[in-house]
Design goal:
The chain is an alpha/beta fold. It contains 13 helices and 20 strands. The strands form six sheets. Strands 8, 9, 10, 13, 14 and 15 form a six-stranded mixed beta sheet that branches. A three-stranded mixed beta sheet has the order 2-1-20. The chain has a three-stranded mixed beta sheet with strand order 5-6-7, sandwiched between helices. A hairpin with a 2-residue loop joins β5 and β6. α3 (about 65-75) crosses α8 (about 175-190), α4 runs antiparallel to α5 and α4 runs antiparallel to α8.
Amino acid sequence: MAGYVDSEVGQLRTVLLHRPGDELKRLTPRNNDQLLFDGIPWVGRAQEEHDGFAQALRDHGVEVLYLVELLTRALEQPAARESTIAAALDDARLGPTLRGVVAAYLADLHPTDLAGVLIAGLAQSELKTGRGLTYRLMDAHDFVVDPLPNLLFTRDSSVWVADRVAVTSPSMPARRRETTLTQAIYAHHPRFAGTGTIYSPGVEWLEGGDVLALAPGVLAIGTGQRTTPAGVETLARRAFAAGVVHTVLVVPIAQDRATMHLDTVCTMVDADAVVMYPPMADVLIAYAVRAADEAGEELVVADPEPFLDAAALAMRIEQLRVIDTGLDPVTPEREQWDDGNNTLCIAPRLAVAYERNVETNARLEEAGIEVIRIAGSELGSGRGGPRCMSCPVVRDPLTV
């Protein structure tokens, strides 16, 4: 089995990461907002921090897969090259002449070099074969192929639901090519041969940071600007039809830079416990959705109720425990901005978190959760924590 995930807390065995590289060096004060970063990270330090994150996972028996290595192997297949190059060329800014030049340039690249360009991008000055009106009018630092700095957040481009993978469909133009690379890996890398897919790029908007596997058969999916109700419905129908889910909790969330996805306000740290941003605990609601027939064609949508109550009922537990990120009026807001909620569970009661979130980590430990602290001063400039930076591929089935 290439992958299997039925919870957020089962023992983590294999994870997909992307070590930040040259794509982060493309961020400037002129383009960082467009590329969804709040600052200009110190790339060398970000790499050191990411290496520390990866090593912490390995130290706890987790196999770390790197996206660029998988992509390079996948690009040995003509179909993978064709689909990823086509996505890079699908840019209205290029025009017919420059599009043809870029197509020829990319087609001649070795898989290693092609993977590098598809991730780090290609500037006008780097395309020595460029010609035509569009090329001549571009600035030397304009991108012919945009970089993908948010590829760091591998959770958003794919999520496993039991033994099926959902390759997501991002809403933000700056992120849409990420999923074409992820899709090429799952479709063409030999490790994932035969993997069943229940979602694909190009359909309704859906991002992996909004999808939480609360328990075997139970998903909570946030909906807002990044993930639409239509995206939730499509994933729910397909998951019901595949028999990998029996309940989907649809959770509307307000959209801003500190609450982009559901996992920025709520993540699991035990089979019956979540860490949660206090202002959200009492206001989050959920609509429980179930299939009315085996094919998942007809859906039954319950009336809204408090998220914590709906989650406990769907998970078949008495109560979902809440560990909040702090009680004073300032600390929770600060640590929310610094991804204090965005923990990655390696096993029940064992979670990775940024070291800077002192109050949140203290509260986790008071509640019996062991915290593996990692540095994140530079990694956090993209507004994402350990959960955002990781896509679990294999977890042990959860038994409680």
